[in-house]
Design brief:
about 210 residues; six-stranded mixed sheet; about 30% strand; about 20% helix; Metallo-beta-lactamase, Chain A; 14 strands
Length: about 210
């Protein structure tokens, strides 16, 4: 499995292009810079994009969704609790940043616990609320795409609407350890890490 990471937008959120072969790929969190993402697809000679998988609905992770959906026809996928963020600049926090996001409807609504076949790759949807009510991580092979749930040495904030410290505690102390194996972690901002490294060193995960 190949993963192309690119930092997009003024907040430098990580977008990911994931594929096994160049016939098709899926994209995680195209937060901005649609042109840059599309040019990368063309450079890699990727034939089709099957899914746009969103780890949550904040504006810096969804800003290019509508343009990429229009270009590729990919299915837009998000957890039910963050669905409204695709449709509201208030809910996705764009208003706070003085920005506006093109509205888009979700094609697939997750509840957590599903497995979706995206570009021929089985991707498990792990509901990890806390940063937002609909935050999820996506497990694909040995890779875990964590959005703003888990960073290298840190975690996301909970003071935005929909955030919850109590739900986050369960996510960090029960859900993530319950995955039961190591993963290479691809976070929503910053550099990568591994899940076992975070269990050992991250002060928010160390029991």
């Amino acid at each position: 499995m190949r993963v192309i990471q690119m930092a997009v937008g003024p907040i430098m959120a990580n977008a990911y292009i994931v594929f096994e072969n160049i016939n098709e790929a899926f994209i995680i969190d195209p937060g901005a810079d649609a042109y840059k993402i599309i040019k990368t697809l063309e450079k890699e000679k990727i034939g089709a994009v099957t899914h746009i998988l969103l780890t949550h609905g904040h504006f810096d992770h969804i800003g290019a969704v509508a343009d990429i959906k229009e270009k590729t026809g990919a299915k837009v996928c998000i957890h039910s609790r963050d669905k409204s963020m695709l449709e509201s600049d208030r809910d996705n926090l764009a208003l706070i940043a003085g920005a506006s996001i093109k509205k888009i409807n979700a094609d697939v609504i997750f509840q957590g616990g599903e497995t979706v076949n995206a570009a021929g790759i089985d991707v498990s949807v792990v509901h990890t609320p806390g940063h937002s009510g609909g935050s999820v991580c996506y497990a694909a092979g040995e890779n875990l795409f964590t959005g703003d749930t888990l960073f290298c040495g840190s975690v996301g904030r909970t003071d935005f609407p929909g955030g919850s410290e109590s739900e986050y505690r369960k996510t960090l102390r029960i859900t993530l350890p319950g995955l039961g194996r190591d993963y290479k972690v691809y976070p929503g901002h910053g550099g990568g890490t591994t899940l076992y490294t975070e269990f050992a060193d991250n002060p928010y995960l160390v029991l």
